[in-house]
Every structure is written in C-alpha cells, then in structure tokens.
C-alpha cells in the first residue's frame, strides 16, 4: 500500500481522499467505483454533490424510529401508522425496514407494519429480547387488529422467528397468516420481483 | 410508475425518498442499491452518514480546477503543479482527472500533468476548441519542459487526439512520446485483441 499512501500525501487530495474512503463504505461501491463516483460528483457539484450533501444531512438530522412500528420516518408515529387511509385491521410483520419498503413499493400493501429489527438467530446470539416482539403482542391485543401477516424471510431464521411470533400471539384474538409459497426458499423479500411477492401476499395462508 | 409515486406520497418518506433518488444518480448505484445504501447509512448515522454529508459539503465548497493543468484540488495551482519534488521536465497529457489519478496511484509517475477534459470526437461534436490544448502548447514552450507524454486512451478518439496534439506541438522544442502498446502485466495472451498482440510483437525487446 506504499503507493496508495504516497498518493494521498503527495497529491494532497485531502478532502477528496476522505470523500473517496467514505464512499467506498457505501454498499454497492468499492474503492474503484468510489473514485469514479467522487469524480462524477465533483463534475456535477450543483446538480448532484450539493443536493446529496443536503439530503444526507437532512436525513441524518430528521429521521427517527417510529415508536409504534419501528419504521423510520421524519415523524413519530410514522406516516404509515398515522395514515388515515390505512387498513388498521392488518399488521404485516417484517424483519427489516428494507422489507417494509419492498411491501409498500412493490406490492402496495395498505395495512400497517411491524418491524422486528432482525430474526432470531442461534448463530448470531439473537434472542427474543433483541427483537421488537413485545410491542407487537401489545398491538395485536387491540380490538381493531384482525390479522397479523408474518412476512419474515423464507430463510431458516426467518421461519423460526415466524413460528416464535405465532406462538407469542396464540392468545390474541387475531388470524395469523404467512406469505404463501411462491417466495423462493432461502429468498429475501428485498430481491423478489413484483409478481412473486404479489402472488405470495394474495395467497397468504393461516400459519 | 403509479406505484412509485403512491409510495412517496403515502409513506411520506420525504427526505429519504429524495435521498434515494439522488443516490441512484451516483455511478455504480442503481435505484435498488440506492435504497439499500440509504438504509445502510440510516443505520450508521454517526459513523457514515454524517461524515459523508460533511465530506461532500467540504469537497463541493473547496475543490477547484487547477489553472495550470486542469486537475482538481483544494488549492490552485494544484498540489502537483506546486510540488517541489516533481520532475518539471515532463508533462503527461491525460484525457480526464480519473486518468491522472490512475497515473499517480498505479504508476507513481512523478512529473507534471495536463488534463485535456476529453478527446476530439466527430460523433459527439467535440472539436479542438473544446479541449484544453492551448494551455498545453504554452506550457510546452517553457524552457524547463523537455518531454510531453501523450497518455490518451488507446481508443480511436484518444489516438486521434494524440496525433492532433503532437501536430500542435511540432514547433515546441520537446520530445513527444506515447505509452507503449503491449501485453498488460499479468495479462493472458489468449484474451488480448489482435491489435494489442501485434503491437506487442512489433515492439518486442531483448530479455
Ligand atoms: Zn410506524
Ligand atoms: Zn495543476
């Protein structure tokens, strides 16, 4: 890495080198594409670099976790939880905010959500207390909730988690359903095409 | 795109959606990886999102184009042009700042540079007046410059540009050289195009 260090010191890229190193930490960008991205943005300062700096700053300053469902938004409760047009009889349980986004964007699900923040995992030492399950049990006890849709990933950990949640909800007066097969085994929701995800939602079954 | 618009409005991602759309314009990130990148950063606000916002802001505010060589840096003349340890007898002519970075980082070239800002291109309507050639002719007239290395890409436009520049420099008292064509170090002959292989054979040297 002698050459790399030499580069930074001699060329005095200073701020640019720091920028490149941070960009290289963004998923999807490696060191080489980070350089390309930095250069691309430096050539589009007003149309891309400055707006992106502002958007990052604003998101970092204003985004918070919804105290009801664990979604992230600029308001708490989040826009979904506070939405007047949402079907409040259904709660879709997802592992991660990325999965919530997939359900919203791809499927157009119109109920409410509950974000667990992960799955049970013996390997990673993640137990029930690490997931946001207590809040879900409370919400499911409410009169207006009729159905809890377990939309955890079709992985071993995702399905273990679904069974655990179904068990925790067995005394709640709700239908508990899961996404139908159609979700490929081992598949992550975030990577699914619209057809598969829509079909899986439509054909959901009691667990 | 009805679903997409619906998503933005209903979910009220506001700043997040704007952030995702800007990230999707960064080369290397598409719409899907932009969402993943946004989520990744939202989970690493202090370690990644805020530092990146600052680095982008600082680069946007402080980076300028070198009035001598067209490099970008936080100072003008750039650190290379102002460097006391650079070999001022050599000027390496590159198409783009990315090529300058490659020469610095990969090759460790220790002379000076001249960034053209593109190549001549009949197709894209880029003529000599669009490139930073006049400045190069002036620099090459200086006593201290002994050699101009034409390191434009080995494309048709790159080579056309190199020939054009060589012609413009024919009255300057400098050696004009170009990068040798040959087998890339570590390259397998089998994968090389005929032109490269022919050039490598023609330029063969005693071992
Ligand atoms: Zn919420
Ligand atoms: Zn310079």
From TrEMBL, chains A, B:
It comes from the Bacteria. One of its GO terms (biological process) is DNA recombination. GO terms for molecular function: DNA binding; zinc ion binding. The keyword Protein transport does not apply. Keywords: DNA damage, DNA recombination, DNA repair, Metal-binding, Zinc, Zinc-finger. InterPro entries: DNA_Rcmb_RecR, Rcmb_RecR, Rcmb_RecR_Znf, TOPRIM_dom, TOPRIM_RecR. Pfam families: RecR_C, RecR_HhH, RecR_ZnF, Toprim_4. SUPFAM superfamilies: Recombination protein RecR (SSF111304). A zinc finger (C4-type) spans 66-81. Residues 89-184 form the Toprim domain. Belongs to the RecR family. This is Recombination protein RecR. The gene is recR.
